[in-house]
Specification:
This protein has 126 residues and is mainly α. The chain has one domain: 23S rRNA-intervening sequence (de novo design (two linked rop proteins)). The chain contains 4 helices and no strands.
Length: 126
């Protein structure tokens, strides 16, 4: 598949890693866990990258920034579901050790990317 401009930022690639890791974990859970926490965490994790892509595809800096903020919200929601999954003993220590560094790496990168998007908007207004 041909690469598009939204796939270039590190934040998009990192969001893909997170959601792929989560999928591999959730797919092994029992039906109740998949149907409750599993579906929620997969949707929120998938939404991170989807919002990054949609923001870039909209074509305006304002739309890009708006969708980046939604991506950040989805990232925080994913953290919430990971905490719930851990508390309910659905995540192993090994799972946590894989996912936590990825989440902790994405948060500041996404915030930085969001700040740059805001600066682009301010620069265009001058």
């Amino acid at each position: 598949m041909e690469k598009t401009n939204f796939e270039n930022p590190d934040i998009y690639k990192l969001s893909e890693k997170i959601t792929d890791e989560i999928w591999e974990i959730v797919i092994k859970w029992n039906n109740l866990a998949q149907d409750t926490v599993g579906k929620q965490i997969i949707r929120s994790a998938d939404s991170i990258g989807a919002n990054i892509a949609e923001g870039r595809g909209r074509g305006t800096p304002q739309d890009n920034r708006r969708f980046l903020r939604m991506a950040r919200g989805s990232l925080y929601e994913t953290r919430h579901w990971l905490r719930r999954a851990y508390k309910r003993k659905l995540l192993s220590q090994e799972n946590t050790e894989k996912l936590l560094p990825l989440i902790n790496e994405l948060i500041p990168k996404l915030n930085s990317y969001l700040r740059k998007a805001a600066e682009t908007i301010r620069g265009n207004r001058k």
